[in-house]
Amino acid sequence: MDLIQHQDSPRYIRLHPDDNVGVVVNEQGVAAGGRFADGLEALEGIPQSHKVSLLAIPEGGDVVRYGEVIGYALQPIAAGSWVTEAVLRMPDPPALDNLPGATIKAPVPAPLDGYTFEGFRNPDGTVGTRNILGVTTTVQCVVGVLDHCVDRVRKEILPHYPNVDDVVALSHSYGCGVAINAPDAVVPIRTLYNISRNPNLGGQALVISLGCEKLQANQLMDGDPLTNGMEEEEWLFRLQDSSTGFVGMVEEIMAMIETRLKVLDQRRRQTVPASELVVGMQCGGSDAFSGITANPALGVASDLLVRAGATVMFSENTEVRDGIHLLTPRAATPEIADALIHEMDWYDRYLERGMADRSANTTPGNKKGGLNNIVEKAMGSIAKSGTSPIAGVVSPGERIRGKGLWFCATPASDFICGTLQLAAGMNLHIFTTGRGTPYGLSMVPVIKVATRTQLAERWPDLIDVDAGQITSGRMTLDEMGWHIFQLYLDVASGRKQTWAEKHRLHNDLVLFNPAPVT
Question: What is the pTM of this model?
């Protein structure tokens, strides 16, 4: 990364020697006539995080960032010009046939031994970073009653069980009015099944059902190790079976919750190796600095997690699609490369059914933050994956069964991606943002990383990490990666709370349902 260093003069960042555009660093942008330290003159005003052409680019010429073509010039672009979406034609996505697979044999770094955190051991061998009771729901119809119960439990009962962090209703909008036997209906069903088994929930089964819905409780719990040896009435409450009205429903549900709180309250943290971490990485409200500061820092920390024997996942199909040719060579085996290609192909066809394509991903906020199109956004997004071999691919709603770096195939929607990473088994979440978002999840701590110091300073009680220190020279990329790695251990141990936890900022679960709604 080349950074023009003069703090009070126009500055830009050039990430790769082949790049013919740079990203403006100055908070107020660069005015027309502003001269960069290398002599380049801005021909017009260029906002912060937007691109300046470093060379004259002819009509039809390649516009290159990250060493990759992010567009073709629709007209001649003079050196010093503001490179906007309006002057670019987006490239076609990489073809999915004949991609290189498992061709990069990176040297194996030394293991990172001796790092631990304080976690909660579960009966199935997983480890939680929090001790939470999750109450599974089969259908949206029960949410009002359950939310009332959970609110009362938190006020009246939970204070008596100080070793339990929270009670969470696993509420969603699925369960009825859906084509429950359609082939793609397996996605939301297995998502909810696996969310109920997230490591942070401690293995205490409790399902609240209406009774007449299409998604029946036995599809989520019956015959499972979570309910082994229990009668149905011990783990399931159907509202339609109640003969005592609303008040009676509430009292019965609260009693079932308290029975489980007594069990969870007996648990204590114990020292476990860092290899028990399952970290989900995500970005939202991205800007052009996402691929310069925050996401590459997560990539450094990701490599450290892999060296420590942990599990770390990156996601978001549409924000990987244009970089797939950079990822399949990193697959540990040809079969894993094929699995990556399969997920990209499936999602291409899913978008086609809705008469959309990957270009629908880029938001007005992304563009205001300097990201011209999904190609540029994807190149910054995949920086989270670091340099480790890709050890596996997990389809939507499935559970990761292994260590190392995994691709969790999800839509790019923040809420759906987070939900599917919960189903995949993550016990800790990290989320980078350039534009800013109060995103949070109730089941896992969410560490928020700002791409720019200006955002971190404006939102000091929402942002946990200021990755903008990389561009200011206060921290190197490696130092920021190590800082995030250590923060993982502190947050996982409960030694530190994230701002999202402190403020109880929690988004709803959003199940991915590619099947028809009836």
Answer: 0.96
